[in-house]
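[recover] target loaded
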């Protein structure tokens, strides 16, 4: 189980900096990208876009730093624990999804053309009952 410090890390402050910009999420499956989008970016008016809409606007990177074992745990919880953890009804991912990601992943860098790179360290978010459920499914 990760240390309490990693579970209680404060989320970064994300503000809308430009009238139009792109925020790219990078991170392992189950590192919290979709949840983060719904909680922090969607309320700011950010939309999900596909490659066809990418043009010459500033690109920002939000890097989800959760370690592989924590991501595998989150995936198991999301697949097993029901709707409150899995509103998108995702099925459990195979171990190879995580090992393949880890073997190919390269840390994002400003030199790649990003306006900024914002690290997001996983923090469990939920009430005491949800924390009990989340803490139960360690793989």
């Amino acid at each position: 189980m990760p240390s309490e410090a990693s579970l209680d890390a404060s989320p970064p402050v994300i503000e809308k900096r430009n009238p139009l910009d792109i925020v790219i999420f990078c991170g392992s499956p189950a590192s919290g990208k979709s949840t983060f989008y719904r909680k922090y970016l969607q309320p700011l008016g950010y939309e999900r876009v596909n490659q066809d809409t990418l043009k010459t606007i500033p690109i920002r990177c939000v890097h989800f730093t959760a370690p592989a074992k924590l991501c595998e745990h989150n995936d198991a919880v999301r697949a097993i624990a029901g709707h409150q953890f899995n509103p998108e009804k995702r099925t459990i991912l195979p171990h190879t999804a995580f090992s393949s990601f880890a073997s190919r992943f390269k840390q994002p860098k400003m030199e790649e053309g990003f306006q900024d790179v914002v690290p997001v360290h996983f923090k469990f978010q939920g009430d005491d009952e949800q924390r009990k459920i989340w803490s139960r499914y360690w793989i």
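[recover] notes: The radius of gyration is 16 Å.
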